[in-house]
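Pasting as-is:
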Amino acid sequence: MTANPLVTDPPADVAPPATTPGVTFASGGETLLGVLHVPAGPGPHPVVLLLHGFPGMERNFDVAQALRRAGYATLVFHYRGSWGMGGSWSWGHVLEDASAAVAALRDPGLVAAHRLDPSRVVVAGHSAGGFTALMTAAADPSVLAVASWAAFDFGAAAALSRQDPGARAGYVEMFDGELLPLRGTSGEALVAEMEEAGEEWRLAGLAPRLAGRPVLLIGTGRDPVSPHPVHHDPVAAAYRAEPALALEEHVFPTDHALSDHRVALTRTLLTFLDQHVGTAG
């Protein structure tokens, strides 16, 4: 019987052993630091890029460790201008940094050193990271699959911000309240940036570019940050209407961080990955 990676460590005698190296890569002229969770065994291992949200309080290391136990390598990193990284924070830099991370996971040196499979790169993320995962996959057809939970739809938020001064003030206040680990930005600057991007950042519009690939969307039913009627339901409807897109969708009755659904989140993601990616070399 295969051990359950949610609750059981893998055998200790598998070689090469599991490792957790720090890795760096360049983006926008800055050096970014991440941690790579490499499974035991010769591989090559499929690899999941796990993108945290704004500003990065929840980094999904519980998910990363479970995925490693199941045979998936994972990379978690900090974007420019956050948590001690150089440069300044912006939504555009987040998108650029995620693309640079995907490129790093395909670098021949990193692939060889850590037994990775560059043909099986998956992008997944939470909140602003869920938005970024979908945007990154849409821009890169070689990303094998994509998953997001509690995704923040910046295009939908931009429309609300432009239409309703009260909503705009609320976004500015919300972003201003999370700036301590960030540098080079403000709530006003972040709202202005998403308003300028507008419809280009509306997640529903990505459906045609994700066609032919599996997509996992998880909404959150008790979430004041990314309420599912605004940030999840229209996206899921657009993806269901795209006949070539393989959508799996859930709405969990939980908060923005999925605080009481971490096991459900991880189990759902693992099942999705096993169905569409797999760990066999």
